[in-house]
């Protein structure tokens, strides 16, 4: 009989609200003022202060956060350099804004955009680059900024998974032209749905505020083409409360990741994501590469063994964006070998702030026992 029948299941993410967060939402519900309003305004101010940005714009979700950024400056046919190993919104929102995503390969250790590969894909139509702080691992921001400056590119940072990540001591939200966040339930902080786009550019911030509400500058006066991308005040109230405990949640994630690193350091065939030099990982996900030729089991077999022990895992992502049928239909296919290899080997292990130290020890033991 599996020990999982006797022990609590370990989920791959923590989705729960504290009493204060529930109370904040209930207070808004009782007020009847549910749409974007005072809570959203306060959330913008508090989030901007937390990350060190001049402006923060609440919106409907992480996809909207990127779409608004792209809409603020892209023109039809503009190209945007996008790492292929990421969630689809990083690329699809370029297409939605009238641009063309140009997919780039990734570094095999950090899983982040390979700037050398991106360099080969720059054309006269390249207008922007959208690096992803994947799983909470910050990009080498100074290298990306130098790359963008050399080619005259706008930077749209995808920080959907990087709440609280830092680079050389500065929050990733304080860099670049745009930084997009998601507050989806699996993220380090969540509101149900919801997003935020940070920028230091006042003109961009104003354009995004107009575009998230049908381009409306006055009642029934529409000066830009826009969408309904507003956040509700219920979500904003939850976000404000979660922001106040983000540091403590991150501290627990850091502890858990350290324990996983220590416990798996001597496990042949298991290689964790390498943290960017100078980076402070936010540990949205703790992902490893499983080399079947060394470990003795492939990624899927290890996941099944852990499932038998009541330990949930995840695969982020089973294919690159350049392998997605819709993008192949639109743009054709060009192989990206690092992305394609990683997609067959990657496995996410639980690292979230709901884990106790004994839970992490159990995960480590289960991985090491699986190969015996």
What distinguishing features does this structure have?
three-stranded antiparallel β-sheet, seven-stranded mixed β-sheet, 372 residues, Aspartate Aminotransferase, domain 1, Aspartate Aminotransferase, domain 2, 2 domains, 40% helix, alpha/beta, globular
Q: Would you tell me the structural class of the helices and strands?
A: alpha/beta
Number of strands: 15
CATH topology of the largest domain: Aspartate Aminotransferase, domain 2
Question: Can you tell me the CATH architecture of the largest domain?
Answer: 3-Layer(aba) Sandwich
Could you name the ranges where pLDDT drops below 50 across 5 or more consecutive residues?
none
Q: Strand order of the main beta sheet, please?
A: 1-9-8-5-4-2-3
Radius of gyration, CA atoms, in whole angstroms: 21 Å
DSSP strand content:
15-25%
- Into how many domains do the coordinates divide? 2
Q: Going by CATH, what is the homologous superfamily of the largest domain?
A: Type I PLP-dependent aspartate aminotransferase-like (Major domain)
Query: Biggest β-sheet, characterized?
Result: 7 strands, mixed
First and last CA, distance: 17 Å
How would you describe this protein?
The structure is a single chain. The protein is of the alpha/beta class. The protein has two domains: 19-244, Type I PLP-dependent aspartate aminotransferase-like (Major domain) (Aspartate Aminotransferase, domain 2), CATH 3.40.640.10; 246-370, Aspartate Aminotransferase, domain 1. It has helices at residues 19-31, 38-51, 62-71, 89-96, 115-120, 141-151, 202-211, 233-244, 246-264, 292-295, 299-308, 325-331, 337-345, 357-370, and strands spanning 55-59, 79-83, 100-104, 126-129, 154-158, 166-167, 170-171, 178-182, 195-199, 216-218, 221-222, 270-272, 279-280, 286-290, 346-349. The strands form four sheets. A seven-stranded mixed β-sheet has the order 1-9-8-5-4-2-3, sandwiched between helices. It has a three-stranded antiparallel β-sheet with strand order 7-6-13, with no helix packed on it. The two termini are 17 Å apart.
